[in-house]
Design brief:
Order of helices and strands: HEEEEEEHEEEEE
Number of strands: 11
Number of helices: 2
CATH superfamily: Lipid/polyisoprenoid-binding, YceI-like
Radius of gyration: 21 Å
CATH class: Mainly Beta
Structural class: mainly beta
Oligomer: single chain
Number of domains: 1
Helix content: 10-25%
CATH topology: Lipocalin
Strand content: over 45%
Strand order of the largest sheet: 1-4-5-7-8-9-10-11
CATH architecture: Beta Barrel
Mean pLDDT: 85
Length: 201
């Protein structure tokens, strides 16, 4: 009898936990999102670029973004810097080697609220089968319901990586000794997400 009561109690606890700890899925709205980067050129200026083919999603608990599970995928062949010759070079084995490594992947390991709408995002970032942990600064712009009844959320994401960490090591040196292309790459993303409606009836 005691075993039965214990089993019954465990079942009730699990049921209550599942009821109140519901998850929600948010998917990226590609039309209203931008995955960008910038890198120094000749020590005096910067080149900006984007990845135009990407996908991503966030799984949240109880409508709180803290501790959300975040995944993003970028298609390397979609890199764009407004210069065909440069884009082709970036797609070559000197850089992303897009035929061999068609994707860049990110998977979060931690997403913590710092203060207000500011968050710290930590995760595994993979380029050319090399995975490194990176830290990103995230600002939640807010949430809103659009005219079609969809709940949306907007984020700005910023961070830095060393491209040499991912075997993106091509470089030429200037006469003054500096590099044509900087080692540090700034990541700057603007992401809009749409909450997926629960299809359960």
């Amino acid at each position: 009898m005691k075993k039965f009561k214990l089993l019954f109690t465990v079942i009730i606890i699990l049921f209550v936990t599942q009821t109140f700890a519901q998850t929600s899925k948010w998917e990226i709205d590609k039309v209203h999102s931008k995955i960008g980067f910038s890198v120094t050129h000749l020590l005096i200026s910067e080149v900006d670029g984007t990845f135009n083919d990407f996908d991503g999603s966030i799984i949240t608990n109880n409508n709180s973004f803290e501790n959300a599970q975040i995944e993003f995928t970028l298609k390397t062949n979609s890199i764009y810097t407004d210069n065909t010759r440069r884009d082709n070079h970036l797609k070559s084995p000197d850089f992303f080697d897009t035929e061999k490594y068609p994707e860049i992947n990110f998977k979060s390991t931690s997403f913590k609220k710092i203060e207000g709408n500011n968050y710290k995002l930590i995760g595994d970032f993979t380029i050319k089968d090399i995975t490194k942990q990176i830290v990103l600064e995230v600002v939640l712009g807010g949430t809103i319901k659009d005219p079609w009844g969809n709940e949306r959320a907007g984020f700005k994401i910023n961070g830095k990586i060393n491209r040499f960490d991912y075997n993106l090591k091509w470089n030429n040196l200037l006469e003054a000794g500096g590099a044509v292309v900087g080692k540090e790459v700034e990541l700057n993303c603007k992401v809009e997400l749409i909450k997926q409606k629960d299809e359960k009836k």
